[in-house]
Each structure stands twice: as C-alpha cells, then as structure tokens.
Specification:
Among the domains are: 22-129, Immunoglobulin-like; 139-232, Immunoglobulin-like (Sandwich), CATH 2.60.40; 239-287 and 391-447, Immunoglobulin-like; 464-492, no CATH class. The radius of gyration is 39 Å and the shape is elongated. α2 crosses α4 (340-351), α2 crosses α5 (356-362) and α3 packs across α4 (340-351). The protein has helices at residues 2-11, 288-330, 332-338, 340-351, 356-362, 467-476, 484-487; strands at residues 28-32, 46-50, 67-70, 76-81, 84-89, 98-103, 119-124, 133-140, 151-156, 169-172, 178-182, 187-194, 209-216, 221-222, 227-229, 239-246, 249-258, 268-273, 279-287, 407-414, 423-431, 440-447. The chain has a seven-stranded antiparallel β-sheet. It is an alpha+beta fold. The protein contains seven helices and 22 strands. The longest helix has 43 residues, at 288-330. It starts with a helix and ends in a 5-residue tail after the last helix. β4 and β5 (84-89) form a beta hairpin. Helix content is 19%, strand content 28%.
Amino acid sequence: MGLVGFVAACAQQGVPPGGPEDVRPPVVVATFPDTFAIVPDFNGPVRFDFDERISERGAGGALDDAVVISPRTGDVRVKHERRSVIIEIDGGFKPGYVYRVTLLPEVRDLFSNQMRDPFELVFSTGPQPQPTTIAGVVWDRITGRGAANYEVQALPANSGGNPADSAVHVARTDTGGVYAFRFIPDGRYQITAFEDQNRNDTLDASEIQGFTRQLIGVGDTLFTANISVLRPDTTPAIITSVEALDSITLLLEFDDFLDPTIPLQNVGVAIVLNEDSTEVGFGQARHVHDYVAYAEAVADSFAVLDSIDGVARDAARAAADSLKVEAERQDSIAAAEAGDVVADSAATAAADPTGVIQRVLADSPTRRSAPIGLNGRPQARLQVDSETSQNPASRGLTGPGGERLPSQQIVVTLDMTLVPNTAYQVVVSGVRNIAAVPLGGGGAALVLEPPPAQDSTPADTTAVQDTANIIDTLAADSTQAIDTVRVLGLRR
C-alpha cells in the first residue's frame, strides 16, 4: 500500500519522460469570494485557484506586479501556493466598496506557459454593484501609439485632487494602451494616466503623464475616454535648421515638437542680411498640414484654370474650322483665284472681324506653377507621407480619435524673393512647443543655392552611323540587292 502511494505521489510531479509536451497555459477554475458576491463582513484574503501548478514568479518578475485592486484602500500583498494566488490588503478589505481584483496575464505554469488574458473578479463589501464602465486608450501624443502598461487612476472630483480624501480607482493599460474601469460609482472623475517607472503607485513630476475629466451616471458606458500622454517639459522650442524649398518658401525645423492645434499667426519670421543685419523681408508661418492644404487648393485651382483654357482653345479651333469650311463653300471661286492660304486667312478674318478666335488660337498654353512641395519639387498635388520622415505627422499617422500629431517642422512663405548665393539669417520668435512652453524661436543661417547649370554641350554625333554612305556602298555593287530593312536597323 505504501508503494502504491509512493508511485501515485511520483506520478503527480510532472509529465513522464517522452510524454506529450505541455503547451496549455494555467486556467483559473475557482475564486473566493465568488464573482459578484456581496460579503459585508469580508476581510480577505482573495484567492484564485488554477487547474495546475503555477510558478512562484510571474512573467515580468514578482507576482506582486500581477495584481491590480480597485479601489486602492491599502498596500497589496501577493502570496503563492502550489495551485493558487493569495491576495491580501494591509488593513483588510474595507466595508462599503465594490472591489475589482484583476489578475494580469503574468501568471505562468512550471513549463513557462503564460496566461493569455487577464482575469477579473468583482465583489462587494456593501453596495450592489452598478453596471458602469469608463474605458479608453492611453496614447503617446508624439507617436500616436497606445501606451502599454501605464497606471491609470480615477479620483472623484469632489476630493479636490487629494487621494487621501477618497478611494482611488485603479486600472492598468494593456499592450494596445486600452484601460477600463468597471462597476465604478457614478459621479465626476479626474482620470490620470502615467508611466509608473519606479512602481510606487504615485504620479511623479518627471513621469510621462496625461489626464481627462469624465462624468458618468448610473448604468452609463463610456468608451471614448482617451488620454494623450506627454513627458513634462519646461524648455522652449529652438530652431535648429532652415531649408529653402524655393526662392520664396522655407522649411524650418525645431528641436521640439509643436502643437498642431495652436495657431501660428503670432509667430514672427524675419529675413536679415548677414553682412549688415538689415531686415529685407518677412514670412508667414504655417503648420505642415495647413501648408499642404493651402498648396493642394492652389494646385487644384490651377488645374481648373488650365482645363478652362483648354476648353476655350478647343472651342476657338472648332469655330475657326467652321468659319473656314463655310467661307470655302460660299466663295470657292475666290479661294481658287487668291490661293488657298490667302483665301483661308481672308475668309476667317471676314467672319471674325475682331480677331478674337485668332488671338485665342495664337495664345500658347499658360504656364502655371503650383506651390513647391516639401521635397523641393513642384507637384500637382503635394504628398507628404514619407516612411523615412522622423516626424510621425509627416507619415500620415494620427491619434486613436483621428487627432493630428505634432511636428518639428513649419513652412514659411516669404513676402520677398531670396537672391542666390546671398547669406541670410532667419530670425523666428513667438513659438510655443507641444507643452505650450512660450518664448521659442531663435535664428538660423540660410544661403539659397543657385539652380544647377544647364548642360549646353552639343550631342556627340560621331558615333551615329551614316546610313547614306552604307546605302551608296551597297548600291555600287549592282549584283547585291539593298536590304533597306537591315540597313535601317529594323527587324523583319
């Protein structure tokens, strides 16, 4: 009997050698208390039971980081048993709260198979849980991407921003930056998201952060409580370079990102000669997306004008042809006596005494140049999306709600024309960065490169075959037929 017990005990130690590989992650099979249980006198602990043995360390380290309890009413302690995770709160679970205990997908078994999804337990120590939800995406204001593993805290607005005056509801973002507060009491909240780098559960001044305010009623569900986060900044944006796209358009770059929602009409741009510091011109600053919209509108208007000109020329040609045919039909004898060319001109002039048709036909197509593109080349319609650009906004990326992303560049159109090979200084003032820090700007040197010289060297014609000599040589031999197809280099 003892031998049987020994064999049975050994059989539970793991998969026998040569057996099937365990690739199935651990699964929660029971909780205490039960989901949605109301236990007014509950003091803990909370227990999660699994269908197999689990590792005493989570995928990201200690199991303490694998548990989030909301609201936070005390420090959390996590213990490990063979098939269980035990959770306690300093001072115990307090009465009068709806608790939400989230077990993040950090738990793994002895074969390193990790939980695929978080597991959530909701229970109450007093009130009936209300089916409310506040959810959204925490996203990076610069890149537009979701911010993973960020701490999100919801604090009732009547607490005055002091966590000690009220319970703090807590959530954690997933890999896509999504967070959710479920069964949260109705009311107005300030929701703050931050990268808790030191894991102290407290927002520090230097940490990337953002916030929103939300009002939720009984039974409400809000899925659009998105929060953009940004690292705090106290330094202004300084110009680092300037590039002349053409003689009246400049592309300015700064060492910080600029908020695309802040208008640039207060940004001053002056062009100064280096040799004597004389101001010779000023410029109008535009965000990149505003300049693109402006340039595309101008390009589209040029296309319409070109189309109208084309229609007018086609109509004039048709009218001239009709007049010519009519004149030839009515005065064929005169046309024959005066000659074709003279008759044609006389007939058209007689039917078009003011010369309108002839002037339209004589006019060459109008050459209209659309505003320059950001690549320095005129285009029918500007395309700024570039996979190589360092600015996410220039790659057409947006925030989760379609928000424009900031850029480090602005475009300036001048009220003067730059002279090639002349040294200028571009002086900028009144710039605010993405954090709304004022007094940005500075100066940068600029020299407009002259256009490349046209290659006027005549083409080398010495290598061209003299087909006339070839034909003459072949013709001298009367016995040999000339293969003109071969001589002209054509294939039969």
